[in-house]
Structure formats: structure tokens, C-alpha cells
Amino acid sequence: VTGVQTCALPIFLYYLLEKNKNILIRFAGAGGMQMLNKKDFSGLKFLIPPLPEQQKIADFLTSIDKVIELKQQQITQAESWKKGLMQGLFV
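and the corresponding C-alpha cells:
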């Protein structure tokens, strides 16, 4: 990365934080109400690529999320169909 990137696209930031959720949870500590404050975040370092690369990464991950969602819907439909077939066997 050349230079320091000081801003991030919101969707890229979402994926970055989602991917590092376990690290953030450890920083937040145990207990019922987990919170991160500015001091907690100031100790974290992330390499942020340039904006065009962020957009490519975010677009790629978004398209994968859409495929996963579609496949999950297909699984749910197949399970419902299977349930209907099984109920038909025991009528």
C-alpha cells in the first residue's frame, strides 16, 4: 500500500469489522454488555487498501453473500419439499 488511507467505504468497513469480530469481542471483554470505546479502537491497526481496491473487495464479498443467501433459500425449499414428501408417506 502506498501512502496512508484515511477513509474507508462503509461496506468495506462492515466486512472488515465482521471478519475481525472475534478480535473485537475479546477487546470488549466478557459480560452482559460488551462495549468498545475510543481507547479500545485506538490500539487496533488495520491495513486499509486504496478506495478502488476497497470497492472491488466489497463488491466481490457482496456477490458471494448473495450466492450464499440464494443457496440457503434453496436448501430451505428442499427441506420443506422433503418434509412434505415424508408426510405423504405416512398418510
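(Above: one complete record from the training split.) The chain is about 70% helix and 0% strand.
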